[in-house]
Design the sequence.
């Protein structure tokens, strides 16, 4: 028999909780309810002698207590087989997920069996997920019992016999793709079997990340997940201009990348002199040690740390000494654990030589000659990498013409001369493209002679059109099917690391499974992750994200519009005032007032509810401006309400709203935080326009002499 208690969570929502998962205090309350229920039946015992009746009562209580204790240890604690199971939301969306029969409650006791090759970081991830799920006892075992009476979690790669056995028992097969994994959860009588099976160590780590999400539910449905990435390279490139991330930022970012199943981080900060202006010089020992620590963090998170160097402005392509400088730099990085390397030849002048030797070797300067010269140097580096580390990933480059797929002499020279193993990056149809289609990527494949690695300049905010903005819209307008034409996608994030996660979550989810990607749901998941699952903080974040929804390009037209949800709401208010009767106007203005209050309160909710306080620090001026705009909108709603009632005090409300709007408009970004600072943009073109237009929506004799006791 399944027993559930209806209780309220911390947001006031009712939820059913298995009785075995209740706290001891709540268990006592349940017991008292049972006792009261039995006592109320005593009048029915009057036909018996009192002594016999009491014996029956205490016998009943003993049976209840014994039965509850037994059931808590087994069925009630762990299983609920007769309730409808619901498909869990997993991000990135798995390639395949199917519900099985029954559901699993982890309860307070779980047995964990990890095959010997399982990494400690993967085991730790599963343990932490179990602890957060309320599991108090995790017993380590080596063998799988014939009939598990508590949940057993088996984890390892397909090489382990116990994993293969568990998959067979579950009627499942191992995903055979690189980085792939299978999760099979089945009910076994009074117990359960959950198998986390990786095709390789990375796949097993991804399985653990998926289990982390599953364990956030009190009840896990029996299910089968077979999953793998559709693009081999997924992650970020720290390639923005302006204030770089700190080493602490980078370490936290690597931990975040692991949670979304990213596998690549390219270290390419513009302020590292030893990777740019002084690229020929060796790193100081202290700096090399710091990088080594970062490489170790990346490894623990199953993220490939790629070191990028930018020799383009001064390199002599035909000078063997410059080649040796690059090889020595790579050797030094290899000594601290770096196995992947990257050469950036973007944002340079390539129609003139940096040395006379190049002119002698390659002839007059020009686009075609530059392509030939670059290919020669890059091929030599690729050969050196393979010689020193045969298992190393191929060299990655960003060419000088990275921003389109048009046929040019430069691209033709690269295509003809560049080693076919070298990976070429490409930003799409422009530096910041409004959209990328499958035909666009196919054209790039043709132009560069290989599938390209997309450098997506979103949500980077280091260019003029992005001044004063955090770019927090969902990742959109990249066509499903791009996985067939791209080697992967790397996001170029903002100077603000934690706010960047909103968009990066979408970028990586799309790269993992572009065919199953849902932009809005992934956006919601990113907000919920930042809020630690708190629904009030999640809602506040989404309200804030909407004010930073505009995604600019290098031109005058953005590729994502500003504040679409707010605009729809404010347009509804305008329509109600213009076309509705008095009741409709009143309801619309009341709704606006309610929205304005939630908008004003959102920054405080975010500051209090966010998991990583760095988000609130990075977004401080935007959150401060949001509160001012919220107060202005509250006063605007009050003004509309007064005007709708023929109250001339409306003018006072509108005047104060105007002053607060001016104060909010004057707020500036944090000095030095971004390459281009300036006034904070907050739902611009939507919120400011409505506040300015509101006094003209309802005609009334406005006066400003009425005293208003509160502006909030």
Sequence:
């Amino acid at each position: 028999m399944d027993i559930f208690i209806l209780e309220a969570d911390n947001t006031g929502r009712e939820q059913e909780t298995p009785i075995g998962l209740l706290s001891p205090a709540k268990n006592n309350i349940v017991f008292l309810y049972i006792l009261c229920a039995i006592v109320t039946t005593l009048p029915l015992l009057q036909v018996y002698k009192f002594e016999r009746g009491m014996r029956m009562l205490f016998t009943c209580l003993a049976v209840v207590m014994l039965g509850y204790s037994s059931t808590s240890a087994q069925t009630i604690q762990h299983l609920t087989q007769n309730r409808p199971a619901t498909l869990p939301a997993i991000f990135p969306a798995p390639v395949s997920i199917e519900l099985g029969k029954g559901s699993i409650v982890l309860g307070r006791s779980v047995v964990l069996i990890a095959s010997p090759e399982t990494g400690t970081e993967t085991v730790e991830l599963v343990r932490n997920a179990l602890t957060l799920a309320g599991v108090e006892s995790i017993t380590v075992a080596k063998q799988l019992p014939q009939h598990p009476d508590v949940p057993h979690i088996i984890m390892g790669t397909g090489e382990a016999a116990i994993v293969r056995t568990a998959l067979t028992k579950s009627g499942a097969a191992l995903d055979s793709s690189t980085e792939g994994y299978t999760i099979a959860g089945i009910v076994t009588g009074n117990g359960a079997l959950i198998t986390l099976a990786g095709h390789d160590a990375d796949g097993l780590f991804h399985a653990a990340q998926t289990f982390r999400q599953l364990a956030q539910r009190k009840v896990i449905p029996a299910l089968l997940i077979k999953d793998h990435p559709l693009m081999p390279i997924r992650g970020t490139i720290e390639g923005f201009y302006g204030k770089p991330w700190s080493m602490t930022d980078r370490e936290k970012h690597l931990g975040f990348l692991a949670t979304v199943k990213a596998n690549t981080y390219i270290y390419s900060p513009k302020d590292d002199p030893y990777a740019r202006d002084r690229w020929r010089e060796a790193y100081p020992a202290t700096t090399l040690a710091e990088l080594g620590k970062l490489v170790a963090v990346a490894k623990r998170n199953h993220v490939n740390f790629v070191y990028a160097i930018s020799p383009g402005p001064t390199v002599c392509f035909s000078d063997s000494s410059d080649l040796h400088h690059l090889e020595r730099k790579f050797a030094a990085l290899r000594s601290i654990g770096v196995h992947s390397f990257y050469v950036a030849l973007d944002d340079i002048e390539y129609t003139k030589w940096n040395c006379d030797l190049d002119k002698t070797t390659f002839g007059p300067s020009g686009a075609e000659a530059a392509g030939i010269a670059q290919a020669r140097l890059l091929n030599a580096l690729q050969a050196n990498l393979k010689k020193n580390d045969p298992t190393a990933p191929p060299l990655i480059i960003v060419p000088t013409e990275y921003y389109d797929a048009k046929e040019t002499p430069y691209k033709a020279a690269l295509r003809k001369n560049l080693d076919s193993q070298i990976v070429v990056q490409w930003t799409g149809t422009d530096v910041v493209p409004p959209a990328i289609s499958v035909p666009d990527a196919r054209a790039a494949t043709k132009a560069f002679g290989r599938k390209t690695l997309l450098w997506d300049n979103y949500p980077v905010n280091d260019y003029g059109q992005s001044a004063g903005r955090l770019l927090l819209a969902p990742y959109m307008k990249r066509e499903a099917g791009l996985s067939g034409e791209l080697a992967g996608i790397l996001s170029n994030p903002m100077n603000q690391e934690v706010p960047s996660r909103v968009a990066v979550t979408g970028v990586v989810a799309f790269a993992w499974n572009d065919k199953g990607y849902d932009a809005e749901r992934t956006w919601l998941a990113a907000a919920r992750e930042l809020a630690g699952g708190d629904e009030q903080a999640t809602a506040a974040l989404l309200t804030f994200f909407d004010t930073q929804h505009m995604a600019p390009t290098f031109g005058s037209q953005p590729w994502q519009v500003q504040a679409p949800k707010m605009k729809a709401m404010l347009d509804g208010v305008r329509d109600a005032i213009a076309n509705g009767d008095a009741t409709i106007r009143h309801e619309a203005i009341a709704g606006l007032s309610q929205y304005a209050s939630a908008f004003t309160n959102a920054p405080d909710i975010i500051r209090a509810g966010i998991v990583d306080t760095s988000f609130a620090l990075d977004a401080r001026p935007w959150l401060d401006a949001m509160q001012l705009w919220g107060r202005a909108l509250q006063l605007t709603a009050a003004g509309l309400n007064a005007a709708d009632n023929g109250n001339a005090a409306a003018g006072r409300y509108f005047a104060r709203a105007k002053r607060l709007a001016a104060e909010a408009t004057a707020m500036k970004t944090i000095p030095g935080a971004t390459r281009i600072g300036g006034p904070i943009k907050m739902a611009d073109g939507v919120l400011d326009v409505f506040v300015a237009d509101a006094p003209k929506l309802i005609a009334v004799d406005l006066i400003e002499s009425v005293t208003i006791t509160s502006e909030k």
